[in-house]
Amino acid sequence: MVCLTVDLIAKKQFKKRSGISVKHYLKTLTHLYFSNKNIEEIGDLSICRNLTVLYLYDNQLTNICSLNFASNLTHLYLQNNNITHMDNLSNLQRLSKLYLGGNRIAVVEGLEELHGLRELHLENQKLEQGEQLLFDSRTLLALSESLCVLNINNNNIEDIRELSVLKELQHFSAAKNKLLNITELEAVLELWPQLLTLDLTGNPVCKKQKYRDRLITVCKSLETLDGRDINELTRQFLINWKASKEANRRRTNNQMLARTRVADHTNVGQGTHPGHLYRPANAPGWQPQQPLCSGIQIHQTQRLTLFS
């Protein structure tokens, strides 16, 4: 078993220089490169308190441990290991970028203290058959004010409505998942006003009618959709087309409502006397009634009588 220790660091990375000791080197170390070294465990590295960037991708790690000392860490690369849980990250409060793609993580959790995290990469988790990547609501809420980049490609995800709280997102990639409902997708995207790039290639929703047009009109700031740039003239045309379509729909609805009111008024007529219900001619007991004379007719009748 290969364990990452200060002795291993000194052996592999330290180059002797005049006047610089190994201890001094470890204390001032900011970048540590140990990718693809068959590392299975992280030992005591507490002397490396100035560490800001740690490369441990393409190893054999099964958990995240022994990093509580790294309060200055800003970039952590742990992709392509065998990590199953997102543990022991709460002390990394300066962490800005976290790479965990290609592991065995089933639940995104344990990031409640990382209020400065801007990028989270979780693509291609090695999940069990029928399993999909899940998100802890507490973690999502904690990241809602900071997270700008989220990559969840190829994780069997069927629904992203719970991600709607991530209102600062600028780059979102969820390619090769199982997203199907375009209406639900539109509702989420409307809550991401700063979104610049969106990648949903390989999802069933991409086959929906007017898929691209609908998303372009919803995402007013979007610059790239599924790897293709969005022309601003095209966006404005689609927005105007949508507005015109909605105006026509409202006008049609208003006309239908007006016709319904007229029909209702006709069916409840005034009859001979105000307040009488209209009775069809073929109704039982119906009898024609003599029309009342108008005021002019009465006046003319009186004149005829006077001069007869």
TrEMBL record:
Q: Which domain of life is it from?
A: Eukaryota
Asked if Coiled coil is a keyword of the record, the answer is no
Name of a matching Pfam family: LRR_8
Which CDD domains does the protein's record reference? PPP1R42
Q: Which InterPro entries match?
A: Leu-rich_rpt, LRR_dom_sf, SDS22/Internalin_LRR
- As given in the record, the signal peptide range reads none
Give the keywords, sorted: Leucine-rich repeat, Repeat
Matching PROSITE patterns, A to Z?
Answer: LRR (PS51450)
Cross-referenced PANTHER family, in alphabetical order? LEUCINE-RICH REPEAT AND IQ DOMAIN-CONTAINING PROTEIN 1-RELATED, LEUCINE-RICH REPEAT-CONTAINING PROTEIN 9
Name of the protein this chain belongs to = Protein phosphatase 1, regulatory subunit 42
